[in-house]
From TrEMBL:
<feature type="domain" description="Calcineurin-like phosphoesterase">
    <location>
        <begin position="20"/>
        <end position="186"/>
    </location>
</feature>
<keyword id="KW-0378">Hydrolase</keyword>
<protein>
    <submittedName>
        <fullName>Calcineurin-like phosphoesterase</fullName>
    </submittedName>
</protein>
<dbReference type="GO" id="GO:0016787">
    <property type="term" value="F:hydrolase activity"/>
</dbReference>
<dbReference type="Pfam" id="PF00149">
    <property type="entry name" value="Metallophos"/>
</dbReference>
<dbReference type="InterPro" id="IPR004843">
    <property type="entry name" value="Calcineurin-like_PHP"/>
</dbReference>
<keyword id="KW-0732">Signal</keyword>
<dbReference type="InterPro" id="IPR051558">
    <property type="entry name" value="Metallophosphoesterase_PAP"/>
</dbReference>
<dbReference type="InterPro" id="IPR029052">
    <property type="entry name" value="Metallo-depent_PP-like"/>
</dbReference>
Length: 254
């Protein structure tokens, strides 16, 4: 009985120490629900602080010029941006704003390592960087972040070219989760043992789905943000709409 109690306490302790990040995609638009999503994130941060915030691209509409008021609405944490098609015209200004040298990079927080890919120009140099970064990573959890999804039932759909370039690396180096935006909805998909999340409901006007692809598991057309949590043994993602409405939640285990 004592041994079981000690094991339970150790497991709970590892989860309490989990890294916790907010996730928001396609958020930089002057829509009615953008401030509602931002407010919901701030309230979540006040109750249980985030260690950072990941964006999934299209940070500012329509041509990428930063809007300070939009940033001021977000929780006051470190922002780890991905960059999308609407960000391209002002990419240099955004790189300076967010303090990153180039539009692809990686960062490690506890048990989690995140690999941010620039999906607008995925050239051989970036692929070589990504493979080296994935190969040398010792993180228990590896998560890929980019703007354009590999799989999607949404308006734009999944990118076949990115899928053919990236999926072999994801499988080879055991990436369990891919986070993307671009389609203005929420969708969870499963493909070849990898969970894919499309989370593009952070601020841009929403769109409905086209025909569901075979990999699709959950589809919701609603404004939202995500919460990513990682401990040594578990990786979880929760999609939350304003008003603390739960849209989806799942947990991956090692």
């Amino acid at each position: 009985m004592l041994l079981r109690t000690l094991i339970l306490l150790l497991l709970l302790g590892s989860w309490v120490c989990a890294q916790r990040l907010a996730v928001i995609g396609d958020w930089g638009a002057a829509s009615p629900h953008r401030p509602q999503v931002a407010q919901a994130m701030r309230e979540a941060h006040e109750k249980h602080p985030f260690d950072g915030l990941i964006t999934l691209g299209d940070n500012f509409y329509p041509r990428g010029e930063p809007v300070q008021a939009f940033i001021d609405d977000l929780p006051k944490v470190r922002i780890y941006p991905a960059f999308g098609n609407h960000d391209v015209p002002a990419l240099g200004a955004q790189l300076r704003l967010f303090g990153v040298e180039r539009p692809y990079y990686s960062f490690r927080l506890g048990a989690l390592e995140v690999f941010v890919v620039y999906s607008e120009v995925f050239d051989p140099a970036q692929r070589s960087w990504l493979e080296t970064a994935l190969k040398t990573s010792r993180a228990p959890w590896k998560v890929l972040v980019l703007h354009r999804p590999l799989y999607s039932s949404g308006f734009h759909g999944g990118s076949r070219s990115l899928r053919s370039s990236l999926e072999p690396l994801l499988l080879r180096y055991e990436v369990r989760l891919v986070l993307a935006g671009h389609d203005h909805d929420y969708e969870r998909l499963e493909a070849r043992g990898i969970t894919h999340v499309v989370s593009g409901g952070g601020g841009a006007y929403l769109r409905g789905f086209l025909k569901a692809v075979p990999q699709s598991r959950v589809r919701v057309v609603e404004a939202h943000f995500g919460v990513l949590e990682a401990s040594e043994e578990r990786l979880s993602f929760t999609a939350v709409a304003p008003g603390n409405k739960l849209l989806d939640s799942f947990t991956l285990r090692r």
